[in-house]
Write a structure and sequence with these properties.
Blueprint: H1 5-14, H2 24-37, E1 41-47, E2 51-58, E3 64-66, H3 71-75, E4 82-84, H4 97-100, E5 107-114, E6 120-128, H5 136-164, H6 170-186, E7 190-194, E8 200-203, H7 205-211, H8 215-218, H9 223-226, H10 229-243, E9 249-257, E10 263-274, E11 280-289, H11 291-332, H12 337-351, E12 356-361, E13 366-369, H13 371-377, H14 381-384, H15 389-393, H16 396-412, H17 415-418, E14 422-427, E15 433-445, E16 448-457, H18 459-472, H19 483-500, E17 504-512, H20 514-521, H21 523-540, E18 546-551, E19 554-559, H22 566-581, E20 584-586, E21 589-591, E22 594-602, H23 610-626, E23 632-634
Parallel strand pairs: 22-23
Antiparallel strand pairs: 1-2, 1-6, 2-3, 4-5, 5-6, 7-8, 7-11, 9-10, 10-11, 12-13, 12-16, 14-15, 15-16, 17-19, 17-22, 18-19, 20-21
Helix pairs in contact: 2-5, 5-11, 6-12, 20-21, 21-22
Length: about 625
């Protein structure tokens, strides 16, 4: 998180909250935190240059204390919640006057209150005069309340920032429009423009992905068509209030009907866009897929119902406060309303995108670097800005190819080719390379070209594909390679035999008496027997050989390397017959099976294909079966 003291203090004073009267919005939270955690003291502490001042306090009479003795000064330097379970046993605080005298602090837990940019303005803290153990559930409750306090300050900060944008020029509006169009198309959040009758006017790919329809399919539908019937009345009621001016916007968690027939939960935010005459032009809907969150909430609902109810009440109050603030701003700043709104939406979408977002200029210098970029690559925003994109993100071995491609693009100017979804290797700060999916879109502002780059870490997706491929080639019962693996392996082995001139042997094995084992002892014993046979086959073969389970009680061995041909194959077949014929003790049961083996030998000038070679070995195996089982038969070549 960015944490420069000068910038933090500048923002804190700009918000004009120091030395102000108590406010119910904050006092309600400290009282609720004190009651929920059973703590005698709960504070909202703001850290000034030389003091800590309490915007809200429960269980403490003083309004401020010197900064040099405050626990919160240390807490704001932490990335996460700071917990001191016993201050007398903590060398940082054991001699602190707040510990040795009134209010005799023994336990302290403080979560940072952060601004939009991540500055720690102060803390929400809970204090006790006796030592305590702070559970994970209590920590989560404290952090949830700290999030609500942070949101209140962020709303005030957003209003402050909005006022500073009033003087933006028409060029800034055009730049915002271009970036918004890019963000609309590439944003991971679903966005749609909806007509007054509910028909879709435009939508981005993320919205299509959430509901499973193509864009041209959705353009023939309305939002009513894809809304779950149980949620439609609530949505329409809120839309009616929005249309009649009773509210300026609304938020709703609802279900869409996915194209495949399933339901998907979404977090829906709807606002309306009016013409200069005050008539409705269309609605703007933003949609986040919260299906996974809903599934988790269902399992935790009983445990956290009380807290969620309080959070919902506070959220409703914040929404109403936000609506009042928005209404006032719209009256005072109507001429610049659309610019400010789109700037705010663009910043929120890009900053909180689930993909790493980087903006670069024509020279390749980084101009923007969002939070996910910090997480993905390990460089903070301050460290990344102004750096060369290829030096910071592209591995050294690939930089020349990257620069060559960049030069070809600048020469040809093919924007469509640039927008293609690509897989490349990227570089983390610690030097490790990892695969990413990248999308690049050019934007022209005041005659200068900039490039919006979205990068998504696909390490887990690639690993999962490799695991699935491995599982597809392995027999789950015995752990041996399966038939598909054999059909891929055998042609390569035959090609090696042609190159080296060394013969290759294929032994087709079918167990004798295996059905009787299943019928007598059951399939569980039969499966254990197959696993033992597989282990015996592996121990009897060399590392250069390979054994496969085809199906049921059929196995195939491919013998290559130092192999003399038919005579060596027959010697190996004798060993396998003797080894497999040995009785096996499984639990209380003694089980015995035999094996019949067919042999096919492949030489350099052999014209047969892999399928024909396997068919030959299979045919020889049936000859061994018909000759009395427990023996082998080889081709006469």
């Amino acid at each position: 998180m960015p944490h420069t003291e000068a910038g933090r203090l500048k923002l804190l004073h700009a918000l004009e909250v120091l030395d102000t009267a108590a406010e119910p919005v904050f006092d309600r939270l400290t009282r609720l935190l004190s009651t929920t955690l059973g703590m005698p003291i709960a504070l909202i502490s703001l850290i000034d240059s030389d003091r800590q001042w309490f915007k809200s306090r429960v269980g403490l009479d003083v309004r401020q204390t010197p900064r040099d003795i405050s626990f919160c000064t240390i807490a704001i330097e932490q990335e996460h919640t700071m917990v001191v379970q016993d201050a007398l046993n903590d060398p940082r605080f054991s001699s602190n006057p707040l510990v040795t005298s009134t209010p005799h602090i023994r336990f302290y837990a403080g979560a940072p209150i952060r601004s939009i940019e991540g500055y720690a303005l102060g803390t929400l803290c809970a204090i006790d005069s006796k030592a305590r153990v702070f559970t994970d559930e209590a920590r989560q409750i404290l952090e949830d309340f700290a999030g609500l306090v942070s949101r209140e300050f962020q709303m005030r900060e957003a209003a402050l920032l909005s006022r500073s944008h009033i003087t933006h020029s028409a060029a800034a509006f055009a730049a915002s429009e271009a970036r918004l169009k890019t963000a609309f198309a590439l944003a991971p959040t679903g966005i749609a423009a909806v007509a007054g009758n509910g028909r879709f006017l435009s939508l981005n790919s993320a919205f299509c992905s959430i509901v499973g329809y193509e864009a041209d399919e959705l353009m023939t539908l309305s939002f009513q068509d894809i809304t779950h019937p149980d949620d439609l009345d609530s949505d329409l009621n809120l839309l009616r209030q929005l249309t009649h001016g009773e509210i300026d916007r609304y938020q709703l968690e609802k279900r869409y009907r996915h194209k495949d027939g399933t339901s998907v939960w979404v977090d829906l935010h709807v606002a309306k866009l009016l013409s200069v005459n005050g008539d409705l032009e269309y609605y703007i809907a933003t949609v986040q897929n919260i299906q996974r969150r809903k599934e988790t909430e269902a399992s935790l609902q009983a445990l956290r119902h009380g807290l969620e109810q309080r959070v919902e009440e506070r959220t409703a109050e914040l929404l109403r406060a936000n609506e009042m603030l928005s209404h006032t701003m719209l009256q005072r700043l109507q001429a610049d309303r659309e610019l400010r709104q789109r700037e705010a939406e663009l910043s929120a979408v890009l900053e909180h995108a689930s993909d790493a977002y980087v903006s670069i200029d024509e020279s390749g210098a980084i101009r923007a670097w969002n939070r996910m970029a910090e997480t993905t690559f390990g460089w903070s925003r301050d460290e990344a800005l102004g750096q060369s994109f290829e030096k910071l993100v592209i591995p050294a071995a690939m930089r020349e190819a990257h620069l060559a491609g960049w030069r070809r693009y600048r020469s040809a100017g093919d924007d469509e080719a640039l927008r293609q979804r690509l897989e490349i290797s990227a570089l983390r700060r610690d030097g490790t390379a990892f695969p990413v999916e990248v999308r690049i879109s050019p934007v022209e502002i005041d005659g200068h070209r900039f490039f919006s780059v979205f990068l998504h870490d696909i390490t887990e997706r690639k690993a999962m594909a490799e695991r699935r491929e491995k599982e597809a080639l392995t027999d789950t019962l015995t752990g041996l390679p399966n038939r598909r693996s054999l059909l891929e392996y055998l042609p390569n082995a035959m090609a090696r035999a042609r190159r080296t001139g060394v013969p290759l042997g294929v032994l087709f094995l079918d167990l004798d008496g295996f059905k009787a084992v299943n019928d007598t002892f059951g399939h569980e014993i039969g499966d254990l027997l197959l696993q033992i046979v597989a282990e015996r086959l592996k121990t009897c073969l060399r590392e250069t050989d390979a054994v496969f389970r085809l199906a049921g009680d059929e196995f195939t061995a491919v013998v290559e390397g130092q192999f003399g041909g038919t005579q060596d194959a027959e010697q190996l077949a004798k060993k396998l017959i003797q080894l497999i014929n040995e009785p096996v003790l499984i639990g209380a049961a003694t089980v015995q099976v035999g094996v019949s083996i067919g042999i096919a030998v492949f030489r350099r000038d052999d014209p047969r294909t892999a399928t024909q070679l396997l068919r030959e070995a299979d045919s020889r195996m049936y000859e061994a079966k018909q000759a009395g089982k427990g023996r082998f038969a080889s081709q006469q070549r």
